[in-house]
Amino acid sequence: MPIMMPASDQLVLNRRDAIVADLRAIVPGEGVISSAAEMLPYESDALTAYRQPPMVVVLPETTEQVSRVLKYCFDNGIKVVPRGSGTSLSGGALPLEDAVLLGLSKFKRIREIDFDNRVVVTEPGVTNLAISQAVAHAGFYYAPDPSSQIACSIGGNIAENSGGVHCLKYGMTTNNVLGCELVLMSGEILRIGGKTAESAGYDLMGIITGSEGLLGVVTEVTVRILRKPETARALLVGFPQVEAAGECVARIIGAGIIPGGMEMMDKPAIHAAEAFVHADYPLDVEALLIIELDGSSIEVDELIKRVEAIALGCGSTTCRISGSEAERDLFWAGRKAAFPAVGRISPDYLCMDGTIPRGALPRALSRIRDLSEKYGLGVANVFHAGDGNLHPLILYDANKPGEMDKAEAFGAEILCCCVELGGVLTGEHGVGIEKRDLMPYMFSEADLNQQQRLKCAFDARGLLNPGKVFPTLHRCAELGRVHVHGGKLAFPDLPRF
Amino acid sequence: MQIRDAADVEAAVRAAIAGEQPLEIRGHGSKQSIGHAMATNAVLDVSALNAVTCYEPNELIITVQAGAPLDDVLSLIDSKNQEFAFEPMDTAVLLGARSGRGTVGGMIGAGLAGPRRIKAGGARDHLLGAHAVSGFGDSFKAGGRVVKNVTGYDLCKLLAGSWGTLAVMTEVTLKVMPKAETERTLVLRGLDDVTANRAMTAALGSPYDVSGAAHAPHPALRAAAQGLAQGLAQGLAQGSARGALAGLASTGQAATLLRLEGIAASVSHRATALAAELASFGTAELIGGAESAALWRDIRDVMPFAADGALGAWPVWRIVCPPACGGAFGQALARDTGGEVIYDWGGGLLWAALPPATDAHATMLRRRLAAIGGHATLLRADEGLRRTVDVFHPQAKGVAALAERVRQSFDPKSILNRGRLVRTSIS
């Protein structure tokens, strides 16, 4: 079933030529793209199943231009969709027919590296990896490391509160960002936080992070950087049953050990990855854990022994310990290539992203197996096991009629299962348009109303990235009513777009 | 009204909205003297919401009602060798309350983290989920029970540190962490504040995983020692937590403290390596185990400025600034006011006890902070002073306006803790 988006504003579309001309006056030269052919690369993000050419693409270069573009759109009632590198997996940057697509790709300068305060001040279009590379010579790095870090921008990381394999120990984006320069939809430029550990007043940075481009446009970011640990080593541990691997994860955490990363793959994912990168993964196991320990070399050596003992106690059938950086990289190579590897064994796949309590892992897996049979579609599982973040990859063929719909229904059932097991709809990819209509499964009407009221505090006219995250649009005025009386709805039957 | 559950809180808030009667939200009242006097005479007491709903040590999470006594919760998780990694401070030492450390809701509402903030984050980083009642009288939930969650806006971040002005929390889910097996503290002696700041910067920029970096100039240590003597005389000393820092005063030198935590072999190795790296700052002494833990409790609770100590009558500021600026800033502040300063977070957090002045030096302090990008909260002051000085740092106009719109989006009629954050002519 196609995802419904907010109705296009015909009056805005009628004025398209004038709007393009006005925007060219604000952002000169090649900063405004309006031809259909040139806008083609912008018609989707990494959730490529959905495509929509924007009304016009604007690529400003300065904060002042961003401010003027937003103020112009605000004054003229024009919607705006912000975009970083376009690597969102949930459709967060999917354009709207009647909206300006505001790309931040020209904001790619690192403004300041301050080792004494252990921060980097950067523009939002800089890639995640580039920040680490810029400080690597001094032994520092930026901790959150989404798999797309070579391409994804730090501004997009803030929009999505991105994680990665190291976030179990070092936190997500929200735990590593200290401040930003933010442009509101009205064009107002604000500075939130800075080089301090905490900012004064309400934690506005905390709410902007993960807000999926609905609250404001970030034009500068201050992130904290960490000194690299002395050493890192990894274990590659195979289990004859998935449940045993789940038990091993629980026991490691229960023993007070927080690994730098703890990832899990099931049999189909192991086989696909091995065929793709030849990481020498064992092929006779049902589940594979990659456990990385980092810190001082003495600590890592000791923890490796403890983890190895726990793994044996859980019935591991293979356990290899990296003896060199090259070997550690090889352990990870398969995991990092798991998504493209699965792409080779199936014409299409749908990558899901839910989180469950770690202890519910075996139940979640058995449920996914049952659903796989119900829908007649294969599935390969790749998990951030340490924090319960699941990435089932649902295998399907878009050329077979009805199969994409089946895959989507399968995915929705998995996410609902995550919520039933005490988890959430998305652990790191965001809600976007992909999981938007599932939000009422996790949140009551009152929960969603409170979130949308907050949206109104930033964007009272609802012009910034509408149609994302929330399954229905509200006018701020109607949300502002104080309900003194009246019962709560047991389950909201929200109108959809 | 007797509050027994979240539905009661909802009913109480709705009644308050209907009657346009603002409410002071109170747990144990341990932090009542922080902030401006609230423009209300009605109290919503949530201390009866004190149950531990669910504790799953293997999942590293605990769910408790907001009124649960923090001391009880800390004992419970301690029994499984776990803790709140952000080291919530015990404000009773500084404020002079005698009622224990307050409630879990108060801990989140205040969001005051201790020394490990530099490594483990603050209260906001450990709040995974909350149930709360907004100023619309609606129960809502924020976040969830898992560490990795980007479903919708992260409302928990706003609740932490909001001083009860956005919603009445009824239940919270917090991340707990395993306690380190061992800890040791390196002590460097006799450094001036600026040099100590440099030593802490070097330590925090090293690969040795420092989990606490603090500096107590000698006058502050002396104040701690005097406070201890005074406290002992009054029979108020509270066990070993009082006096560890005072013990360092005997040498007559400032003390710069660097904490290392982890498994024993690793801590020894890192201590040796860090001492070598910092050799140009002097020879480091090593303090281990319980004594080290007591030192960091004293730093966390700002023991040198204890309410029953030598500087108990002085107003105390909590100043947050870029860490590398702390030493020079604090040194000048102490020199120019005759006050005393101790440093935590590697220089990023300053506690300043300043001699009485009409505005508690607020104007000068905040003017200087503007130059380096920091902010200051007047954490301890009598009510008269709090009536004339902005307790919380005034924000830039646009940010303040946004913050006010955010507040209104939770509580349009300003029913909850009205007037606590922003000084008005009537408060």
UniProtKB/TrEMBL annotation, chain A:
Q: Which GO terms describe its molecular function?
A: FAD binding; oxidoreductase activity
Pfam families xrefs: FAD-oxidase_C, FAD_binding_4
This protein's cofactor list reads:
FAD
- Entry-linked InterPro entries: FAD-bd_oxidored_4_C (IPR004113), FAD-bd_PCMH (IPR016166), FAD-bd_PCMH-like_sf (IPR036318), FAD-bd_PCMH_sub2 (IPR016169), FAD-linked_Oxase-like_C (IPR016164), FAD-linked_OxidoTrans_Type4 (IPR051914), Oxid_FAD_bind_N (IPR006094), Vanillyl_alc_oxidase_C-sub2 (IPR016171)
On whether Oxidoreductase is a keyword of this UniProt record, the answer is yes
Q: Where is the FAD-binding PCMH-type domain?
A: 50-228
Alphabetically ordered keywords of this record: FAD, Flavoprotein, Oxidoreductase
- PANTHER family of this UniProt entry? GLYCOLATE OXIDASE SUBUNIT GLCD
Q: What is this protein called?
A: FAD linked oxidase-like protein
